[in-house]
Specification:
alpha+beta; Butyryl-Coa Dehydrogenase, subunit A, domain 1; 4-stranded mixed sheet; 9 strands; about 55% helix; disordered N terminus; FAD; AcylCoA_DH/ox_N_sf; Acyl-CoA dehydrogenase domain-containing protein
Length: about 350
């Protein structure tokens, strides 16, 4: 069991964490890796009955009233068991925006996208499976959002590296204008940061599993009369995975801590999320390379579960901003702070 540490400002009830883990472990037990992912309606219904689908929603609006600590634990549990389900996209992103602007949120499965001036958004998570899509667009002076029946949108199916739906959504902005609700610019910016932090949390969970699997494999696999873990080159590979995973988690927990304790109001929120995404992105490169080297050919087979985590880490690190993008954000923040302000930027 992995729980969010106490220094994040909130602890996760151990019984709740165990329940999340048990439900997702039970669902995945015995199921082989999937090439393409489709939403399991039975699983979604089960999670809904347990109050996990709208974990952070307001209790008076059908939610469970939990926070980001619990949401991070739920996301991590799903990653640990390689269960692909749009919990974050539905709860932390789409329903949060609609709730923030005062729109009613019913029990429909939702995702969210920000469309361009032509009404198009690419790589939209789970749009093909969603019943409704929260469509955000710029109206020139600001932004608007409309809660749209997915049947009225043009959705072209696509997938990411691990087969999760990443679809093209096309909306008629002119038709939506009359029903659109104004969205504060700060909400749109927070949506961008929330989306990025979701992926950082997921990558960290994948890195933890990659590390555990590599340790188990190298400890049990015997070559030339001794376990792989006795070879110095293998020890260095595993140590590098552990170091990178620890750095990525520390950076992600720092951003999560700021989000929870300040309710996303910290003036360093953007920098902290950028650091988390930069660290997780670079950590994924090291962990994936070293793990596959340690496993050898067996780690590349479809039957072995290593790829469910290595490919996931690589896919998620490039969503909601590339590694290069977040590296640039960190660099620009450091340059803006200058010599006198750099220590305060990274230490406070």
């Amino acid at each position: 069991m992995t729980t969010v540490p106490a220094h994040t400002g909130m602890t996760v009830d151990p019984e709740l964490a165990d329940m999340m883990n048990a439900v997702l472990a039970s669902y995945r037990d015995g199921k082989p890796p999937q090439k393409n992912v489709s939403l399991d309606d039975g699983l979604w219904s089960s999670l809904d009955r347990l109050g996990l689908v709208r974990l952070t929603g307001r209790p008076d609006d059908g939610g469970s009233g939990a926070g980001w600590a619990e949401a991070a634990e739920l996301m991590s549990a799903a990653v640990r068991h390689a269960v692909r389900v749009p919990l974050a996209e539905h709860d932390l992103l789409a329903c949060w925006v609609l709730d923030t602007v005062g729109l009613t949120v019913d029990g429909a499965l939702r995702t969210i996208c920000v469309v361009d001036e032509h009404g198009t958004a690419t790589a939209v998570p789970w749009a093909i499976s969603a019943e409704r899509v929260a469509v955000v667009w710029s109206d020139g002076d600001g932004h608007r959002v409309s809660d749209v029946d997915s049947a009225t949108l043009r959705i072209t199916a696509g997938t990411n590296m691990i087969g999760e739906p990443r679809d093209v959504v096309e909306a008629d902005i002119a038709a939506l204008a009359s029903s659109g609700t104004m969205v504060d610019t700060a909400v749109v910016e927070q949506l961008r940061l929330r989306s990025a932090l979701v992926r950082a949390v997921q990558v960290c969970a994948a890195l933890d599993v990659i590390l555990d699997m590599t340790i188990e494999h190298t400890s049990s696999r015997v070559q030339f009369g001794r376990s792989l873990s006795k070879f110095q080159a293998i020890q260095h590979m595993v140590a590098d995975i552990a170091a990178e995973a620890a750095l990525a988690r520390a950076a992600t927990e720092a951003a999560l801590n700021a989000a929870i304790t300040s309710d996303w109001a910290s003036d360093k929120m953007g920098f902290l999320v950028a650091v988390a995404r930069s660290c997780t992105g670079h950590a994924a490169s090291v962990a994936v390379r070293n793990a596959h080297q340690a496993f050898g050919a067996i780690g590349t087979t479809i039957e072995h579960r290593l790829h469910e985590y290595t490919r996931a880490a690589l896919a998620w690190r490039s969503e909601y901003g590339s590694v290069q993008h977040w590296d640039d954000v960190v660099t620009q923040a450091a340059l803006h702070a200058g010599g006198p302000g750099l220590w305060q930027l990274i230490a406070d």
